[in-house]
Amino acid sequence: MKKVSIYRPTTVDEAIQILSQHGASASVYAGGTDLLVRLKNRLEQAPSYLVDIKKIDNLRYIKEDAQGGVEIGTATKLAELADSKLLQDKYPMLVEAIGKISSPELRNASTLGGDLLQEVWCQYLRGGYSCWRNGGYLCYGAIGDNSYYHSAMGGRLCYAVYPGDAATALIPFDARAKLATPQGEKELSIEQLVPGDMLVDGRIQSHVVRYNEILTSVVIPAPKPGVRASFEKLRPRGVWDFAMASLGISMQLNGKTIEDSRVVFGGISGKPYREKSVEAFLKGKTLNADLGEQAVSVALADAAPLKYNATKIDMAKGLLASGLARLNA
Amino acid sequence: MQKIEALLLEPVGCLAEFPSAPFHEIALRLFGRKRKAGSSAGTLYWYVLNLMESARAPIDAEKKSVAETLEVEAVDAATIYEDVVPALAELKSMGMRLFVATSLSRRAAARFIERNSLGEFFSGVCTRDDAGGVKSAPLLSALDGASLPREKTMFLTDTLEGIKTARSVGVHPILMMNDPDEAQRLAMHNPAGGVVSLHEMPDFIRLLAAQNQKA
Question: Which residue of A66, A218, A299, B159 has the fewest CB atoms within a 10 Å radius of its CB?
Answer without folding.
Answer: A66
